[in-house]
Description:
Elements: E1 3-5, H1 8-14, E2 20-25, E3 29-34, E4 37-42, H2 49-60, E5 64-65
Parallel strand pairs: 1-4, 2-5
Antiparallel strand pairs: 2-3, 3-4
Amino acid sequence: MVYLVEDWNAMEVYGTEEQRIYQILAETVVKVVAGEIGFRKEFADPEDPLISHIIEFCEDRYFVKLDKSVKVDNFFL
């Protein structure tokens, strides 16, 4: 289970688990998970400064950038 937070600042403070993943979809949907804490937001403007801040935060802290997800059963198909 992932507990979603609405405020990115809370994610920066509490998202300190070792398993850290982020994903950017269609340049406007941002998903970040660190352990059981998650953040998801769809932005109206792909140039929103918070998007670049989140990406920089994730890169600086070695979050893994997720390309896409597939079920294990379908992985080798």
